[in-house]
Design a protein that fits this description.
The protein is α+β, with helices and mostly antiparallel strands. It is 38% helix and 24% strand. It is built from six helices and eleven strands. The strands form two sheets. It has a six-stranded antiparallel β-sheet with strand order 3-2-5-10-7-8, with no helix packed on it. The longest helix has 36 residues, at 179-214. It is elongated and about 70 Å long.
């Protein structure tokens, strides 16, 4: 009996390790030797403690020297009530890459509000607003992360601006993808998530069946544990938001 529970604990631990690996920074494009994707760097950051700044204000020349350089390839600002403005450039898009298309992926499923301002070929900006507190219809692409399609006429000499606001930790790796590479990576990622969730559901159903046969409360507690773990995983990885707001 003890061996049985130890084996179950090991299986749960292995599944959790797999789920963490699916979204971990160890699979960031910069750490893969792939020419078709890379992590954005060279961020500049501006804190807005009261959240009163508008885009017209923070993009004006008067605010240019108020941004601070942010080191590293992952924006990590912790849990904060402040709004943060981030700006960066996506550079060196070749002709072939522009034809294929480019995606910008923000790999944190739990940011409440993300406003992105993408410079077009003229002086205008394309504005897109997504986040956990906003409808899925705002998304360019349905994914458990936040993915934006960069327009072919994007002005590479100007900054892309982000406005970030969230009650959860503001930790945000940003990846620039070639369209074909993103689709291939998403396919493999979703296969992994499908296997992970499928195993959890199979364990839940099997142990629920055993409980109804044996009427052993230990199995019921185990079923409840798996159920809450399943709900936690689909929430933290962004799939719950996709399911309840289609």
């Amino acid at each position: 009996m003890i061996v049985k529970y130890i084996l179950r604990g090991l299986i749960i631990g292995l599944l959790y390790f797999i789920a963490s690996g699916l979204q971990s920074d160890s699979v960031l494009a910069s750490e893969k030797i792939e020419p078709n994707s890379y992590s954005i760097s060279g961020f500049e950051i501006l804190e807005d403690p009261t959240g009163i700044y508008s885009f017209d204000e923070i993009s004006a020349s008067d605010y240019a020297n108020q941004y601070s350089d942010y080191p590293g390839e992952v924006i990590s600002l912790g849990i904060t009530k402040s709004v943060y403005w981030i700006r960066f450039k996506v550079v060196n898009l070749g002709i072939e890459e522009k034809v294929a298309g480019k995606f910008l992926q923000m790999k944190n499923s739990n940011i409440d509000k993300i406003d992105i301002y993408i410079p077009a070929s003229n002086d205008d900006y394309i504005v897109k607003k997504v986040g956990v507190s906003r409808p899925n219809s705002n998304r360019d692409i349905i994914d458990n992360t936040w993915v934006f399609q960069l327009p072919k006429e994007m002005n590479e000499q100007k900054y892309i601006y982000l406005r970030l606001e969230s009650t959860s930790a503001l930790r945000l790796p940003i990846i620039c993808w070639n369209a074909d590479s993103f689709i291939a990576d998403s396919f493999l990622k979703n296969l992994g998530f499908g296997a992970f969730y499928g195993i959890l559901l199979a364990m839940l159903i099997f142990n629920l069946f055993i409980y109804f046969v044996l009427r052993d409360k230990a199995y019921l507690f185990y079923v409840l544990y798996i159920m809450f773990m399943f709900l936690y995983q689909i929430q933290v990885h962004g799939h719950l938001k996709m399911l309840i707001d289609i």
